[in-house]
Amino acid sequence: MAAVAVTAAACGSDPKPLRVGVLVECDSVFGSTRAGALAGAALPLVERGARPGAEPGELDGAVVAGRPIEIVPACSQVTRFDRLMSETRWLVESEGADVVVGPLGTPEGAMMRRLAAKYPNVTFLVGTGGAQETTLRDRQANLFRFTPDGAQSVAGLATYAFETLGWRRAVVVTEGYPGGWEVAAGFVAEFCSLGGAIVERDLQSVLSPVDPAAAANRHADSADGVALLVTAASPVAYLTHYAAAVGGGLASRLVVSGPPFADEGSRAPENVETTGVVLGGDVPLDPDDEAMRAYRASLERAYPTLQPGAAYHDPTYASYTAVQALATALEATDGELGDGQAELRRALGALELELPQGAVRLDSNRQAIADISLERIVRGASGKTRLESVATVEDVDQGFGGRFTPETPPPSPASPACVKGSPPGWAR
Fold it and tell me: Most buried in the list 61, 77, 276, 390, measured by CB within 10 Å?
């Protein structure tokens, strides 16, 4: 079997344990995120008194509001929809999962709508899956997402480029697959609403084996700046060539976003001066952020064998957020689920969470309204870079002031169109 139950324990047989399936990457290119994702899912329970085991994600004695909790991991795999479906089926039909958390991947998150429709008596908490359509279109009453979608995760970055840096013409560089389309959609919608123009959407230059030199030179000549928005691909080759093409003053010609920039090697490639460049995202990386620092310390105390920085990885933090929401909702219902989990779902929908990255609540589509961080790259005395807070963009909703609705086309290589007017509330 592809997955086994971690542990959990509680005394007695009443109430019935709540079984929480957690979809993680096990043997794919993202297999290194497995330990963090399971540890993140377990941490809210450890913080409520469960005893962590030797391996990340293992725990014993998990009880919330009198309700025993059991975590059951299963192995999904990015781009393998057949495996996602079979593992979810195994969790629900063989292991009796009451709640399913995950998976990793943008289209995979959207696929969870179909699985939620198939299993209406199971509650689904989508984690690291930035597809807008997961909650905006064909909504399922038993599916919730407490993390921003891809477009939301870059909110405020375009306003910074337009208002602070003075850009009027921008190039967006991202990956030519769904994750890239989603983040590009947020920047394009916001930048164009303010009156800016997108002169190119480059979906190739951060992907191997493309040589980005010609594109970087073209972008430097044709636009005021580049929004480099990567979800998984290394930005180093493109960034190196673009910095050379700009020839100095990179902080006025570049904004960035994406998980790769949590790494020093991507944030400050050799011979590239990125000091002053602003990064946007939903997980603050500023080491002086007290709430995030406390969360990281708690995770590392519980599971000290995790790789350094795992607390900031999307799968870790998304799993933590989902189970934190679940545990808080159970506390609100005194551990009761209700018929068809109705009480649990009402509580989830009404939550106003204070998470390490900021306040989160859900809209009527059960999609997060969240805070997004803008941070600046600075260089410390050691020569290494770090992030410091510039601003917090509060109450970022999925609709972007009416730019995105159930009737608008989903993000794609050409969508959304660049249209001026009606900027979202945070950009006014």
Answer: 77
The answer to whether 42 and 50 have CB atoms below 8 angstroms apart is yes
Query: How many angstroms separate the CA atoms of 389 and 280, rounded?
Result: 10
Cβ count within 10 A of residue 173? 28
Q: Which residues contact 67 (CB under 8 A, 6 or more apart)?
A: 15, 17, 18, 330, 335
For residues 258 and 154, what is the distance between their CA atoms, to the nearest angstrom? Answer: 9
Q: Residue 161 and residue 167: Cα distance in Å, rounded?
A: 6
For 125-135, how does the pLDDT look when each residue is reduced to its tens digit (9 = 90+)?
998 878 999 99
Record the pTM. Answer: 0.94
Distance CA(296)–CA(347), nearest Å, equals: 27
Report d(CA 152, CA 373) in Å as an integer: 11
Q: pLDDT tens digits, residue range 104-151?
A: 888 888 889 999 999 999 999 998 878 999 999 999 999 999 999 999
Dmax over CA atoms of the chain, in Å, equals 70
